[in-house]
């Protein structure tokens, strides 16, 4: 950050010299000074009272296709439609199979809406929300050739690096909650190093080290799927960006390309914490009174009848499903549904009000506190989402 230099203005002093005449017997007496009545200066006008800062409203949950694609359009980087031949090729491929393309989107609408809401919460480019379409066709159970797994097709090493449990009889890459958090964490980190969403997407696909070396060889930061820049990357990486460009264009201008985006209504998916004493998915379905098939559909990482110690305690569930009774949640981590209690104004400096796009990790880094200490001070569990406007306690 730039620092403002202090501008010091030296004082200007003017000295006047008075000459006193020598005493004289003929000098006339000076008249007595006439008192001058001072005119009082008007009191400075009081500034108008400052209006309280507006707390950003939490966006409404996305509950149908029309709202989903409208919200997604609002986050796409401009211009959404690139006239390059490579992205044009992929636009024609998607639009040329319009029925299958629409069916794929319809099947994954709730998951896509969940991802869009998470992208909004972190204030990221809308193109990032399209990555699961390219990676897995919005299938959280997808397994790729060579090891990539899940909605975001993450390799095990990258997933572990970003806090996803892989091993011990559990693969968190199959959890939409854990994999989405980890993938967006990774994209945020890449975005901090590479310029623009295209370069970030290239790094996500090819690996940050490979892109870094390619940019160093090219001698500049120019990135283009159309012109295969930087040179030396695999064709699949250039096509990866071209696919995202094509999808962004179809979302932005579906009518122009003869594509119909599904407008179906659906129940939004929400992340919930599982009680620590629940041994497996069937028991969870009974505890919550939820259809087991619904749990299996949205949580392929939790399908086993008995979970291991490594199993994540986060699940996705449609919001129209019955909410767990409070008594059944006694052993679960506290959900982020309640704001911290009011505090004394004198302690306001050690609190932070959450704004759109913030993450707990960023807030912890801003105040120089440990992430786990920040979670503990606010009764938050790993994977809990932050609500805009909530005031967090900042531990000493």
Sum up the structure in keywords.
Membrane-bound Lytic Murein Transglycosylase D, Chain A; two-stranded antiparallel sheet; 396 residues; single chain; Lysozyme; mainly alpha
Give a quick rundown of the structure.
The protein has 396 residues and is mostly helical.
Which sheet architecture does the biggest sheet show? 2 strands, antiparallel
Q: State the helix count.
A: 14
Order of helices and strands: HHHHHHEEHHHHEHHEEHHE
Q: Average pLDDT, to the nearest integer?
A: 81
CATH top-level class of the domain at 65-257: Mainly Alpha
The coarse overall form would be globular
Q: Helical amount among residues, as a percent range?
A: 25-40%
Radius of gyration, in angstroms, nearest whole number: 31 Å
Number of strands: 6
Strand content: 5-15%
The N- and C-terminal alpha carbons lie at a distance of 26 Å
Question: Would you kindly provide a written description of the structure presented here, covering whatever features stand out?
Answer:
The chain is mainly α and 396 residues long. Among the domains are: 65-257, Lysozyme, CATH 1.10.530.10; 345-393, Membrane-bound Lytic Murein Transglycosylase D, Chain A. Helix content is 36%, strand content 5%. The chain contains 14 helices and six strands. The protein has helices spanning 65-73, 85-96, 98-107, 109-121, 131-136, 156-161, 176-193, 196-206, 208-218, 235-252, 281-288, 292-298, 360-367, 371-377; strands at residues 166-167, 170-171, 269-273, 314-318, 351-353, 391-393. The strands form three sheets. Strands 1-2 form a two-stranded antiparallel ribbon. It has a two-stranded antiparallel ribbon with strand order 3-4. A hairpin with a 2-residue loop joins strand 1 (166-167) and strand 2. Helix 8 packs across helix 9 (208-218). The longest helix has 18 residues, at 176-193. The chain is globular, with a radius of gyration of 31 Å. The model is unreliable at 1-28 and 325-349 (pLDDT under 50).
